[in-house]
Design brief:
single chain, mainly alpha, 79% helix, Helix Hairpins, Four Helix Bundle (Hemerythrin (Met), subunit A), 0% strand
């Protein structure tokens, strides 16, 4: 029995390591692809049309292989195709000159996120969506405020992008110090962002940790709960069997009559 327990622990540990490596791989792919999508080709000579075309084809090939494997393993292929229409959309090859080429890269980015159970659970979580929405609203408001207040008073704020970068750095409490508000209104916004960032980043980190723990330890907890329910059912069954054995003839006949009344009528 001990060998079986050790074998089970080793197998679960191997599964966790494999899932962890897979999640890390998908995360790196997501970050790399996101950087390539939003990068400015004019500033990076290696970001040529040929490079983007190869990246797109590599992603489409990966999606096609993964989709084919899942389609082959499913029983109801028609239902599978209908339910996974977004996967087919992500596999549409468009030339880099096509106006929708960049939009299709965003579609593929979402598809990569969907390939990660952990990342997708974070993105689709109601709590995380509320946190993201609140963060986006605060960043948009503070960036617009800083841009209006600091535009002609701060040499470091020359565009809305500069204001947005400052707001992100301030909210995440990184605070490089390379950009500081020069107006009283800008300083008030900075203080608000600092205090708001402490709460939001803490809440975001706590929710992310909960998803992480639940993803890697959830199956063990579910199995433990199932085992507890099974043990309880066995205990209850033994107790009922013991009680039936201690009944006298009269009580036993009454029990049979009750069971007869509960039996559904024959058609």
């Amino acid at each position: 029995m001990l060998n079986g327990t050790m074998k089970g622990l080793i197998e679960r540990g191997a599964v966790r390591v494999t899932r962890l490596l897979y999640e890390i791989f998908i995360l790196l792919v997501v970050l790399t692809y996101a950087i390539l999508i939003f990068a400015d080709p004019a500033d990076q000579p290696f970001l040529t049309e040929t490079f983007y075309r190869r990246i797109d084809y590599a992603m489409i090939t990966f999606f096609a292989i993964e989709y084919s494997i899942r389609l082959w393993r499913t029983e109801d292929r028609k239902r599978f195709v209908i339910r996974n229409w977004f996967d087919l959309l992500a596999m549409i090859p468009l030339d880099v000159h096509f106006p929708l080429a960049r939009f299709m890269r965003l579609v593929r980015l979402v598809r990569i996120l969907h390939a990660s159970p952990l990342l997708w659970s974070v993105v689709t979580s109601k709590q995380m969506r509320l946190i993201f929405l609140f963060m986006m609203l605060i960043l948009a408001w503070s960036s617009a405020g800083i841009y209006v207040l600091e535009l002609h008073h701060n040499d470091s704020i020359n565009s809305f992008g500069d204001a947005l970068w400052w707001a992100i750095v301030t909210m995440t409490t990184v605070g490089y110090g390379d950009v500081s508000p020069a107006t009283d209104g800008g300083r008030i916004i900075a203080v608000f962002l600092m205090f708001t960032g402490i709460g939001l980043i803490g809440t975001f980190t706590a929710n992310l940790a909960n998803h992480w723990v639940g993803f890697f330890h959830g199956p063990d907890k579910e199995q433990a709960r199932v085992n507890r329910v099974q043990d309880q059912l066995k205990t209850n069954a033994l107790q009922w069997m013991y009680r039936i054995e201690t009944l006298n003839d009269e009580e036993y006949q009454q029990l049979l009559k009750v069971m007869e009344t509960l039996r559904p009528p024959k058609e």
